[in-house]
Specification:
Layout: E1 4-7, E2 10-12, E3 18-24, E4 33-39, E5 46-52, E6 57-59, E7 67-72, E8 77-82, E9 91-97, E10 108-112
Parallel strand pairs: 2-10
Antiparallel strand pairs: 1-3, 3-8, 4-5, 4-9, 5-6, 7-8, 9-10
């Protein structure tokens, strides 16, 4: 079972940037698609970005053009670069396979507020 550890969250003002990192305990090379999910307060968890082993990316409409997902199979990491952050991006962010097949990590809190 792969363990996932997310980091890089924090408090940022609207318009700011954050870089989230997800470290996997084992190789993710064979996992076709890895993704970043988020769960806003009182809402369901949603997929915001995904990336295949070949580097093909997909984004939710709400983050298209602002977020960039990348993966480093050699380092077993998945990165989410978030720019032009908005208050509605406030959520706990998680990484997992797509569809989610591993136990969820603790996530990392992102708060966008002035």
């Amino acid at each position: 079972q792969v363990q996932l550890v997310e980091s890089g969250g924090g408090l940022v003002q609207p318009g700011g940037s954050l870089r989230l990192s997800c470290a996997a305990s084992r190789s993710i090379f064979r996992i076709n698609t890895m993704g970043w999910y988020r769960q806003p307060p009182g809402m369901q968890r949603e997929l915001v970005a995904g990336i295949t082993t070949g580097g093909v990316t997909n984004y939710a409409d709400s983050v298209q053009g602002r977020f960039t997902i990348s993966r480093d199979n050699a380092k077993n990491t998945v990165i989410l670069q978030m720019n032009s952050l908005k208050p509605e991006d406030t959520a706990v962010y998680y990484c997992n396979a797509v569809p989610s097949s591993f136990r969820w990590g603790q996530g990392t809190q992102v708060t966008v507020s002035s």
